[in-house]
Structures are given as structure tokens and as C-alpha cells.
Design goal:
The complex is a heterodimer of chains A (201) and B (663). Helices cover 83% and strands 0% of the residues of chain A. Chain A is mainly alpha-helical and 201 residues long. The longest helix of chain A is centred in the N-terminal third of the chain and has 37 residues. Chain A is elongated and about 70 Å long. The relative contact order of chain A is 0.17. In chain B, 54% of the residues are buried. Chain B has 20 helices and two strands. Chain B has a two-stranded antiparallel sheet. Chain B has 663 residues and is an all-alpha fold. Helix content of chain B is 68%, strand content 1%. The chains are: A mainly alpha (201), B mainly alpha (663). Chains A and B meet through helix 1 and helix 5 of A and helix 7, helix 8, helix 9, helix 19 and helix 20 of B.
Chain lengths: 201, 663
């Protein structure tokens, strides 16, 4: 006769979360390689202005600083949402996620408006190798932010419907990892693209 | 108004996209008729429900592995068809005769051959074998993320679908298997060919990346209790090395393909000849992925040999620790050699010297592995079963190809033979004997574990000898031709060069290879026919050493009734010889439910690709939204798993064990 053991569900769930978080870290590292490749491309092409404007002529640092502040603050509020989640305070979590979402949306709006003006001035990605790599690097980050915002909205709906279960908490953890990761990438973009671009040449 | 609407709706698609010449029409009809034939067969035998429930929606890695391998084998046949056409062309297209293919068609065929063989044969076979074996070897019941695993497969399948669709609608890239710009730019390749190439690789590449993450986490988190990394079977080590490379290299491929797609669709200037683009950057980027890719394919083949050789030599693997170090040395070094693919770019003597030295250095860990296998055989009681034959063929040919590779690593020599058939002979010798022979060995070796019966040995041996002889006949002449100055991608040459005899010999070699493939097909058919006599009732048909042989064949969906506890490297061997048998203990098992979500993601990705290729942007957008909705719906499923009750497990296990006594 065999002995029947019932499953230790909390332990299994905790193990599953651990696996998922590790997997997500691995994914973030691959995303890091993706951005590294785009940075390398930018590094190769940033001088190829092909008679068009260079970064010094195009970038408005104060504007980008506002953009940066919006994103950095959103990272902070995302952290506050995580703290609230650890306290199992659902309404606080939803509030801070809402603030994060709005800040992220602000960032995205500012970025799109910057792009829009550049294109209107005739400085689109078609203008030169430099602008191709600029739009692609910054745009890929913007695309990540867009997906992050969609994800945030969906997670908020899940949390408001189901509360802070093991499942929603796991998703929130991954989302916050993703959001902080995008923040770090932006710091590199801000430094390498905007600061160096405005300083030199 | 109507035309405007049609343009927005259909993009570039029109009736002219259907094939115009006889050979393409033949290929296209073969694909369409073959597809319809399969659909009709399934419908007539009422197998749709079965197919959907047991296979297409399955989350069992063994099932997914089998699907990967089936696709790869079909693609192998297509890739070989391309080979036959190319060899026929080169054997006959001399002087006044222009052979059977026109130049542009020939270019499409060699581009398709390389692309299909690497991405849809080798990669598919690789992920198939990993899925079959890795969880069993680790003493695990599943991979870390079963749903992601099935999604990876369906993305691979979608990419495969796109590349084959190019034969029916539109054309395929004529820019070589890596599509160097500026040739692959819109200006010089205005048709959809390069776009098919980009999107089929983009989609299947994302699948590969996700698989890489999945298997890495499986290895790091799901090993049986007691299995420390240093007790892990060598195949698992090699997969870990290979998947680490996937994680680092495939994002570069994604970026590179995207940039080329941007150049072609929205007019950026990354790799264009004008506008501040830099075509050499593409070559750097694609090889920064491409060289590690070679090792992604070959490391698991090394892993397979590291399982096969000890089993058939009845000895533990020689130099386990040095094998592990060799794997990681290769992983590291494989990122430091990519420039040897284009020494002639003119990066300067110092840069070339660095990459030349690194290339020679990477031969060292590979040599360590070869010697370790030979020392494993030394004074062993060797059984010359088919997997072992594949290994021994590999040793000889891989060494010849490897020596040619070391020769090529010297930049000064490389300048002489760059882009010649010498190079073609070299890399085919590495990839066929290393990768393909390795995977064939693995498939023969693990076949009984998955299907419950052994493959026919005699036909396996005939297949091996046909492959080995055909392969030497096909590629030895190419070394000579390469040294005589014949370049790759040559569709016509002058009679006075005196190359024709050698090309004819190479063509005869391909006939032998095709005979080998015929023997393999026959082997499969006959083995299925005689499966009742070939049943593996012990679960351990070869006298194996690792955990996968401790479970009955075919391995049950849950792999292990009780998770094994590991105390030694060759745990199963140790248990066997200590006379230790484990009394089965049954427990509840958490099993992932079947889901079609992976298949839908693949289908939507296919639409994204098709829409982008034909500039039907609404379709691409629809596909993208479809993917996101599928993910959200899937994420809102609260119970993706169910509990397989201990009673059920006991019943299934008893059925497997009872069968042993009956037959």
C-alpha cells in the first residue's frame, strides 16, 4: 500500500515565485544585452550626422531633465507601492501604482512631444545615421515604458479585483523590477546620449 | 479610392506574388499539396481532437521535444533538397551549359539552405533534444516554465511557417544566409525576400531566447535533491553553457534584424551605403551573435557525446572537471573570435592578430574534450552501437575540419581563402560532423526512452556509413576547389578552369548522403512497424549511467513517481551496481494543464511577421494586439495546474510496470 502525501501548496507556490523571479532576472539581463547593443550602435553612428544636426544642436537639456525627473520619481513611487504591498495595504498599493502610472505617462508624453518636434523640424530618423540610432535607442526605451504602462494597468485591475494574493504579489514584484530596470537604462541614456551629446562637439 | 483602399489593405501583396517559374512552382505545389495531404489525413482518421489534446496544447516537455524534432526533420529534408539542386547546378553549369537554375534562383536556394539548416534544423533539433532529456537527467518532473516552453516552440513553428510560405507567396532572400548589407538593403533587394528572412528569424529567435532563459532556470532551480552542480550529468552542463550563450547572443540578433528591418521599412540609415550608415557595423553585429551561435549548437552535441561515450565504453567519463572547464572556456572565448569571419574587412594588423590568436586558442578546450573522450574509450569495453559510430565518425571528421579551421585562423592565410569553397568545406565539416552527427547519436540513444522501443540497428549503421562516405566525398573536393580559387555561391564557371570533375565528385557525395537519409527514413518506418519486438522493457536498454534510465520507457508524463535523491555523479549506475532498487512511493503531483495559448501566440506572431513583410500594417497590429490579449487572458487564469492524485500516479505506474511482465 502506498502512502498518500498531500501537497504542501504554500511551499510549492513560494518555490514557483522564486523560479519566476530568477527567470525574470535572466530576462532582464538579456534585455540589458539588447540595450547594450543599441548603445554600441549609437556609439558607432553618433558622429555620422551626414550634414544634419548633431546632439549639441538638437537636445534641450532642461526639457530632458524634467523628463528624467518624472521617470525617477515614478521609480520612487513604484517602490512605495511595493512597501505598501508588503504591508498588505491594497488601497495604498493601488494609489501608488496610479501615481507611478501617471508619472510614466507624463514621461512618455514628453518624449513623444520631443520626437514630434524633431520630426517637424525635418530631423527625423531618415535624416542621418546619427538620428537613426538616436531614435531607435531612445524609442526602444520608450516602447519598453509603453509595455510597462500596459502591464501596470492590467496588474492594477488584477489587484483591485483579486486583492494581494501570492499571484498578484508575484506579478507586482516582477513589474517593479522591470520598472526600476528601465529607470537605470534611462540614466545611461540621459548620460551618454543627452549629457555627452550636449557637452561635446 | 478603391486602389487606395486595396493598397492599405493588401500592402504589396498581389497575384504577381505567386510563383512564376517551373522549379519554384514545383516546390510551392509540393508544400501546398503536402500540407493539404496532412490535413486530409488527420481529418479522415478523425485525429484532430487527439492531435489538439495530446500534442498541440501539451505542456509536457517530452511531447514538445518530439514536435520540435519532427519539424526539424522535415526541414532537414527541405534543406537537403536545396543541396541537391545546388550540387546539380554546380556539376553541370560549366562553359556553354548553364545548368538547371538561373542565377537569381540559385542565390535564393543557397540563402534558404543556410538559413533553414541553422535555424530550423539545427536549432529545432537542439531544443527538441534538450526538452526530451534535460528534465529527466536532472531528476525533475518538468522544465521551469512549461507554458513558456510551449510558446517558444510555437514561435519557432511560426518562423518556420513564414520561411516556407516564401516559396509560395513572394520570393526568398537572395542575399546569403546572413544577408549582408548593402545588398540586403531595400535599394538592392526591393522584393519581399529579405523581409521573409528577417521576420522568420526574428520570431523564431525570440522563441530561442525564451527557451534559453527557461532551461537556465530549470538547471539552476530544479535539480533533484543532492545533485550539486558538480554531480550534474555532462549533457546538462553543456546545455547550461549553450543556454548562457543563447541569453547573451540572441538579443544581439534581435537588435541586428530589427535595425535592418527599420532600414527597409521606415528608411533609417543604419547599414545603408549613404546617409551616414555603416554596413560593416552589421557584419560585426551579426557575427557577434553568429559566432557564439556555432557554439550554441555544438556544445550540446559535445554533451551528447559525453553521455554516449561512457555508456558504450562502460567506463565513467574521463576528466569530468576538465570537461566542465572546457565548456566554460569555450563559452567565454566564443565571444572573442567573431572578427575572424571578416579578417579581410581591413580592421588592421593588430586587431586581426588578436582575433587570429583567440581563434587558435579556442581550439584548445575543444581538443581537451576530444582527448577526454578518447581516454574514456581507452581500455573500456566498447560496444559499437550506432550512437558510438556517429561519435567515431565525428572524431575523425571534426578533427580534420578543426585543423582546417586553425589554418583559417591565421589572417594571412585567411586572405587567400576568404569566401572560397575551402571555407565552405571547413564549416560544413564542423557543423555536420559536430552538430548533426551528435544530434543523430543523441536521437538514437534516447529514442527508446521517449517512444518505448529501439531503432533498427542495422539500418542505423548503413545510414551512418552512407553519411560518412557521402560527406567525405562531398567536401574533400571542396577543400581542393577552394584552394584552386573557386568561390562560394558560384552558379557558373569556365570550362578551362578544370573544376568540373571535382564538382561531379562532390555531387556523387550528396547522392550517398541522400541514400543515408533514405536509410534513416526506412529505419524509422521499419522500427515503428516492428515496435512490439523492439520494446525496451527494462527502461535501461544501453546500460546507462544517468537518471533518465531509472524510469520505465517510454518515460511517463510526470517522469518520476518519487523524486530521486542524488549522492553520486553516475547515480543510476551506482544504484544498479549496489543492487539498490527503490520501492515506489506515490505522491500527489502538480501538473500543468494543457493550454492552447502558446499556439495562439505563435499564430499571432505569424500574422505580425506576414503583415510586416507585405506592409499590411493593420494585420501586424492585429497580431500584436492578439499576442497581448492572449498573454493577459493566460495571466488571468488562476489555476494553470491541476493535481495528479497519488492514486492516479500509482495506476499509471503499475500499468507501465505490468506491461513489463506481459510481453
Amino acid at each position: 500500500m502506498s502512502e498518500v502525501t498531500s501537497l504542501d501548496m504554500p511551499r510549492l507556490e513560494a518555490e514557483a515565485t522564486e523560479k519566476t523571479v530568477l527567470g525574470f532576472w535572466a530576462y532582464l539581463m538579456t534585455d540589458c544585452v539588447l540595450f547594450a547593443s543599441l548603445f554600441a550602435v549609437y556609439a558607432v553612428l553618433h558622429g555620422n550626422t551626414f550634414g544634419g544636426p548633431n546632439g549639441h544642436e538638437l537636445f534641450k537639456l532642461p526639457y530632458v531633465l524634467v523628463e528624467t525627473m518624472a521617470l525617477l520619481t515614478s521609480s520612487f513611487t513604484c517602490g512605495l507601492a511595493m512597501i505598501a504591498a508588503q504591508k498588505r495595504d491594497k488601497s495604498q498599493v493601488l494609489f501608488w501604482l496610479g501615481v507611478t502610472f501617471l508619472l510614466g505617462l507624463t514621461f512618455l508624453g514628453l518624449e513623444l512631444s520631443e520626437f514630434h518636434h524633431m520630426v517637424l523640424d525635418g530631423n527625423s530618423w531618415r535624416r542621418s545615421g546619427f538620428l537613426s540610432s538616436y531614435f531607435t535607442l531612445v524609442g526602444t526605451h520608450g516602447l519598453h515604458i509603453t509595455f510597462g504602462l500596459i502591464w501596470m494597468a492590467v496588474t492594477s485591475v488584477f489587484i483591485s479585483k483579486r486583492g494581494l494574493t501570492e499571484g498578484t504579489l508575484k506579478r507586482l514584484t516582477l513589474l517593479s523590477l522591470f520598472w526600476h530596470f528601465l529607470d537605470i537604462v534611462w540614466i545611461f541614456i540621459f548620460t551618454i546620449v543627452y549629457l555627452f551629446g550636449s557637452l561635446s562637439i | 479610392m478603391l486602389t487606395q483602399f486595396a493598397n492599405a489593405f493588401l500592402g504589396r501583396l498581389s497575384w504577381h506574388a505567386l510563383p512564376q517559374d517551373a522549379i519554384t512552382r514545383g516546390g510551392a505545389s509540393a508544400i501546398v499539396l503536402g500540407g493539404l495531404g496532412i490535413v486530409a489525413l488527420i481529418t479522415l482518421t478523425h485525429r484532430w481532437k487527439w492531435l489538439w489534446k495530446e500534442w498541440l496544447t501539451s505542456q509536457d516537455p517530452k511531447r514538445i521535444g518530439v514536435m520540435y524534432i519532427v519539424v526539424s526533420v522535415v526541414m532537414l529534408l527541405r534543406g537537403l533538397g536545396d543541396v541537391a539542386l545546388m550540387r546539380a547546378q554546380q556539376a553541370t553549369s560549366v562553359g556553354n551549359s548553364h545548368g538547371i537554375l538561373d542565377a537569381s534562383h540559385f542565390q535564393q536556394i543557397f540563402s534558404a539552405h543556410g538559413t533553414i539548416m541553422i535555424f530550423f534544423v539545427a536549432m529545432g533539433f537542439l531544443f527538441g533534444l534538450i526538452n526530451l532529456v534535460l528534465p529527466l537527467q536532472l531528476g525533475a518532473r518538468d522544465v521551469a516554465f512549461p507554458f513558456l516552453n510551449s510558446t517558444s516552440f510555437w514561435l519557432f513553428f511560426a518562423g518556420m511557417g513564414l520561411i516556407n510560405l516564401s516559396l509560395v507567396i513572394g520570393d526568398f532572400s537572395a542575399a546569403g544566409w546572413l544577408a549582408y548589407p548593402p545588398l540586403s538593403e531595400l535599394k538592392f533587394s526591393p522584393t519581399t525576400g529579405v523581409d521573409y528572412w528577417i521576420w522568420s528569424l526574428e520570431i523564431s529567435g525570440v522563441g530561442s531566447l525564451l527557451s534559453g532563459i527557461n532551461f537556465l532556470v530549470t538547471i539552476l532551480k530544479m535539480r533533484a535533491p543532492g545533485m550539486t552542480l558538480r554531480k550534474m550529468p555532462m549533457f546538462a552542463w553543456s546545455v547550461m553553457g549553450s543556454m548562457t550563450l543563447v541569453a547573451f547572443a540572441f538579443p544581439i540578433l534581435t537588435v541586428t534584424l530589427t535595425l535592418l528591418a527599420l532600414d527597409r521599412t521606415i528608411g533609417t540609415h543604419f547599414f545603408t551605403a549613404g546617409g551616414g550608415g555603416n554596413a560593416m557595423m552589421y557584419v560585426n553585429l551579426i557575427w557577434a551573435w553568429g559566432h557564439p551561435e556555432v557554439y550554441i549548437l555544438i556544445l550540446p552535441a559535445f554533451g551528447i557525446f559525453s553521455e554516449v561515450v561512457p555508456t558504450f565504453s562502460r567506463k565513467p567519463l574521463f576528466g569530468y572537471t576538465s570537461m566542465v572547464w572546457a565548456i566554460w572556456a569555450i563559452v567565454l572565448l566564443s565571444f572573442t573570435v567573431w572578427l575572424h569571419h571578416f579578417f579581410t574587412m581591413g580592421a588592421g594588423a593588430d586587431v586581426n592578430a588578436f582575433f587570429g590568436i583567440m581563434t587558435a586558442v579556442i581550439a584548445v578546450p575543444t581538443g581537451v574534450k576530444i582527448f577526454n573522450w578518447l581516454f574514456t574509450m581507452y581500455r573500456g569495453r566498447i560496444k559499437f552501437a550506432t550512437p558510438m559510430l556517429w561519435f567515431m565518425g565525428f572524431t575523425v571528421m571534426f578533427t580534420i575540419g578543426g585543423v582546417a579551421g586553425v589554418l583559417l585562423s591565421v589572417p594571412a592565410i585567411d586572405y587567400q581563402v576568404h569566401n572560397s569553397l575551402f571555407l565552405v568545406a571547413h564549416f560544413h565539416m564542423m557543423i555536420i560532423s559536430g552538430v548533426l552527427f551528435g544530434y543523430f547519436a543523441g536521437l538514437t540513444y534516447w529514442f527508446p526512452k521517449i517512444f518505448g522501443f529501439r531503432l533498427h540497428e542495422g539500418l542505423g549503421k548503413i545510414a551512418f556509413w552512407c553519411w560518412a562516405i557521402g560527406f567525405m566525398l562531398a567536401f574533400t573536393p571542396l577543400y581542393i576547389l577552394g584552394l584552386m580559387g573557386a568561390t562560394r555561391r558560384l552558379d557558373h564557371y569556365d570550362a578551362s578552369l578544370g573544376w568540373q570533375q571535382l564538382f561531379i565528385v562532390a555531387g556523387i557525395g550528396v547522392i550517398f548522403v541522400l541514400l543515408g537519409v533514405a536509410a534513416q527514413v526506412l529505419q524509422l518506418v521499419i522500427s515503428i512497424w516492428q515496435r512490439d519486438q523492439r520494446r525496451d522493457l527494462t527502461g535501461d536498454p544501453w546500460g546507462g549511467r544517468t537518471l533518465e534510465w531509472s524510469v520505465p520507457s517510454p518515460a511517463p508524463s510526470y517522469n518520476f513517481t518519487t523524486l530521486p535523491v542524488v549522492t553520486a555523479r553516475d547515480q543510476f549506475w551506482a544504484d544498479k551496481h549496489a543492487g539498490k532498487t527503490v520501492e515506489p512511493r506515490y505522491e500527489d503531483i502538480l501538473v500543468p494543464k494543457n493550454t492552447g495559448a502558446g499556439l495562439w501566440i505563435g499564430a499571432f506572431a505569424f500574422l505580425v511577421g506576414f503583415g510586416m513583410i507585405w506592409h499590411m500594417y493593420w494585420l501586424a497590429l492585429l497580431g500584436l494586439v492578439g499576442i497581448m490579449v492572449t498573454i493577459i487572458v493566460r495571466a488571468s487564469d488562476d489555476e494553470p495546474e491541476y493535481i495528479l492524485k497519488a492514486k492516479e500516479v500509482e495506476k499509471m505506474d503499475n500499468a507501465l510496470r505490468r506491461r513489463k511482465q506481459y510481453v
